[in-house]
């Protein structure tokens, strides 16, 4: 396959997750040579990479790894890429997906995007193109922050300024108490990640309430009334696990 072997050019400003950790990307393709090349190029960006050679393995890794983006080949030995994507979306995942395909017909491209894919590249492709498209998808997801980002934490239309302690949603100011602000900041620094009550107690209150996890429920309720009232909800309860902040699905 005609895939360039050189690494991308000069390193750009590194993208990181909102909590400061490395971006996570899952690469799914049954061609080991191609997977190795993509892994090399993406690690050059400073990202954490996992790989899978078939659809079922990809679904297992995606569940545990919780990637920020997936590079997904359409032609796989078991489930095809469209089936993998359908199962991801059915499970509630809105992770950005970049399809790889040897097919260049308009129908195939439309099928991938209609199924919920975010972008595609056709083989053969350059590593630079894949990296550039991934960076675009990750930036548009608004779930990550660049190194040079200022005091604003942004998740969808929700903005929190760490310096001024101002919070807005869709441009409308939201007044929060100091504790509500700290709770929201913790949620926004960990978008799409389930946070347990114990984690929230430790991070927001900095000491053990001796089992009084109900204080978390109370403050989550306060936040919902201010953040989600009259809008598509962003704060979600994951039964038996904790709470998660995520961008509402368009059209939900």
TrEMBL record:
Residues bearing PTM 4-aspartylphosphate: 73
UniProt domain Response regulatory: residue ranges: 24-138
SUPFAM superfamilies given in the database record: CheY-like (SSF52172)
Pfam families given in the database record: Response_reg, Trans_reg_C
DNA-binding region: 150-247
Domain OmpR/PhoB-type stretches: 150-247
Keywords from the UniProt entry: DNA-binding, Phosphoprotein
Top-level division of the source organism's lineage: Bacteria
Protein name, as recorded: Two-component system, OmpR family, response regulator
UniProt source species: Plantibacter elymi (nom. nud.)
